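Why does this matter for the project? Reviewers at the last site visit asked to see concrete outputs rather than summary tables. In response, this paragraph embeds two records directly. Each consists of the residue sequence and, immediately after it, the corresponding structure tokens. Nothing has been edited or filtered.
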Amino acid sequence: MHHVVLDTKALRGNHLYTVHMKLLKRLIEASKLKIYIPEIVKNEYITQKQIEFSEKLNARNTMVVESYFTHDNLLKDKLMNVIDTLKDISLEINKSVEEEFDQWANDLDIDVLKFDNVNMTKVMDDYFSGGSVFKSIKNRNDIPDSMICVTIEDLSKKVDNLTVIVEDKYFNKHLTSIGNINTFNSLQELLDSQAIKNNLEELDLLNEKYEKLHKYLISDKFKNTLLADLPSGINDVLEYIYLEKESLSNVDILCDNIFASEVEGIDKNTISNFRIFNAELVDDNQFYLNIEFSAKSLVRYWTEYENFLEIENSPERDLELGSMKSDGATQVYEHRVVEYKALLYVPVLDVVSENPEKLIDFENMEIEEGEGVIT
């Protein structure tokens, strides 16, 4: 049994139902792995999510618009209704974030570890001495990490071996000094470990359809079936890809001084260089495939107006002006080829057939958006 503790970054980087979490769930259901989350980590994650959504959905921008109009009472009433609705939705979102976490924790049978107040004495001793995970003496920012750390230390006394997913190098160094604690920087590193790979391979062999489907999904025949069905097949999944700046690289190729950027969709007739790298079971009814492809995409970005002027007449560029603010910030739309890496989920039908193609639910494939390189 693998006993695994997740820190806040591991949660924030993987959300709750990514492929990494689905693979862990598979191991959990086979009684090969158990997940623990310190309550402080849970609270940090929920708070960060609430702040993130609050920043994306707030009434402040609408209030600025509303305050501009003094005579159009009908418009002001409509705007005030929008503001009230946004405020109500924000409260509902805050509640739902916590409910979603609790449901996820219940689905994966996760143990949330409460902080034992008795350990506060040790936390404060380390605070004044700079011990444990403190980066310096009396560093208040490290108090939550110290509380998490002593919670993990308590757990390590109850299990033979404990694995902790943690990126912080101070945290990592301290935990690895404890005899029965092993650390990984990410869930991907954990899943790449030989012990976990062996466990997943054992589960694969228990699935009657695995060998047949695995060979088919990584074959040229499957790829050609997907591509032959364009533009109505695989492309229905890929067409609505949306990537924010954090998932895009080589953005500076567009122009100087880009403030924000995103991909809003692809031209479904331009998909090329489509490749499948592997196929793995997520559970008994679904595979995931690592895929790569290129496609002409609609990229939206913000820059200075003077930067837009420098590129607008370039004959090789396919762009148009979106909007411009009073401070000169300019929104630009441009079609560029983007190279994508993503995960494709392939559902397996509950039917009996010797033909692997008839076992695939082509109509309900889904994509987990990964990353893109602008070319």
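We now turn to the second protein, recorded in exactly the same manner.
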Amino acid sequence: MRKVSVDNPQLRGRIGDFVARIAGSEERAPLSEHKMMRLGGSIDIREVAAIDDSGLIAGYAQAAWHRGSLESKGHWAIEMVTGPEHRDGATTAALVEAVMDEIGDDGAVLLWARAEDAIAAATALHWEESRRLLQMRRALPLAEIGAAPPWLTVRPFRMSVDERAWLEANNAAFAGHPENGNMARRDLENRMSQEWFEPEGLLLGWAGERLVASCWTKIHHDGSGEIYIIGVIPEYMGKGLGRVMLERGLDYLGRVRGVRNALLYVEASNRSARHLYAHMGFEVTTSVRAFSPPS
């Protein structure tokens, strides 16, 4: 087994095929969307691959840089995927160490363990769990939706018009968040370029001329719908807008698009959001754990 940096288009193409093959044969996504969008190469990633003795790809690891904000420093987020025959932990641990060598001392690190071998590797390296992301699901459609405040206007996103307003509102709502905060125009445009993006599925809540809340939905290839990003700016929190926007996002997915199952992701530590989602009928189905090196 040898470890190599991903520095040529041919190898990167093989890695794309490797990840797609595993995604097609297993129920779970081998990498998060953030990592999948960077498989084509990016200035803010580090990549390594493990090649077995026959020359086939045995595993792949990627570290992507998440910019910080005034409230939080940036960090490297690592994810990896290994072939079914290389999940004894050795390949995974080697990938972690190799991508850490690529990063060096250039910032904090978080390892998202999406499979058991990644958890085993983090444990063997004496890394400690620092975050946990819960997936929650519920059936659709909603039986009913509540009334919105009379001063709130909810309408779909307008291409080439609402980008700046959404970025300002999102970054205010997620100030200090290690992934969703401090988004730049290129981050938004990257997501808008994905085949699943629908302007009608990004619902914006306006108080007069000010964007104060939004609910971005996404429909997956398997037909399930996701509450992708939902946020309320700080000055308008506590007014019930989270529920208002969530209901309208679920109504769009269920009644308008005919989706029968909805999912979302929430930090395990975010008790207020978890309470809202549980009250709306969502139940925890699975989780993804994140580990940090010992300090």
